[in-house]
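lol so apparently i was supposed to do this last week
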Amino acid sequence: MQKPESRPVIYLDANASEVPRPEAAVAMLAAFDVAGNPASVHGAGRRARAVLEDARDGVAARFGGASGDLVFTSGGTEADALAVHAFGAGRRLIIGATEHDAIRAAAFGAGILRVDGNGVADLDHLADLLTAGPALVCLMLANNETGVIHPIAEAAAICRRFGARLHVDAVQAAGRMRVDLASLGADSLAVSAHKMGGPMGVGALLAAPGLEIAALIKGGGQERGRRGGTPALPAIAGFGAVATLPIASLGGLRDRFAAAATACGAIEIGAGAPRLANTACLALPGVKAETQVITLDLAGIQVSAGAACSSGKVARSHVLDAMGLGTLAGEAIRVSLPWNITTAEIDIAIAAYSAMARRLRPGLAA
Ligand code: PLP
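anyway here it is w/ pyridoxal-5'-phosphate bound
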């Protein structure tokens, strides 16, 4: 019997979840062997606590904060919700127009900070919004759909001028660019391990010195009373391990893919702004994003469209809508390269994309 043809499967959806780093698995297995609960006073408890605090030191150091100001959470979503709960009380909420749903849901009803056509926050608008009184501003460092990086240090200076607090969702930026709470001048950062090659289900909120973090989840007083619940020790150990790894160099492979796609008629969205080196948002005029995702998937290339909602369907992207892209917003896919991508894989993906564009865009030269 003939063997079925095997074709490579190429994962270009790292912004949904990064390819796991082997270092995380090693640390997690070791932590899984530690029997104790970090809250216990006996030897096993002390060993578990040492694992927890080593990871806390590593993650806090990676993001330019103090271990005592870091609270482990169940991921980026909870870290964002905790920030809005802890720092937004008694303040008006203002969020960027392209924030992730983690922030949009936690800060429902907030004032919306405009972005320009590249998806970059409009800082004059921020200053206008801040004249109305004490606020908590939530602005992401890098966008999950476009990779566009906001000018956080400048936004932080404006916030300080108006006595506002600034929470930064650094979930996508962490692991892909330098992220340092102190040099950004923000009040807090949300990060998530699985966007850095660590495990899913663990993240952290890191606050500037002196900021009280009022618990959202109360319980047994864990995390110094700031987040109840027994900490997910193996996952936290995996987070600690990836926090020590250097940022992967992708050697221009995103641009190699984007150049080939634009040669096929694609429009690269947000390309006029600073972006994460692993992310390209590419619209193919006249071809629905969902059709592109399915066609590429059948060719073994895994990308995503707009915001993939938890039902697996493709929802219309509020990010691309906020950038004023009109119908292109429904025709854009996100290509996000993982840390271990190779040139050979990108070239296979380029061939699949070109074949798709030729097939789905009538009139494109063969
Ligand atoms: N913030 C941003 C910018 C994200 O991209 C995501 C996940 O995609 C989250 C928050 C939520 O993080 P988590 O999946 O760890 O809950």
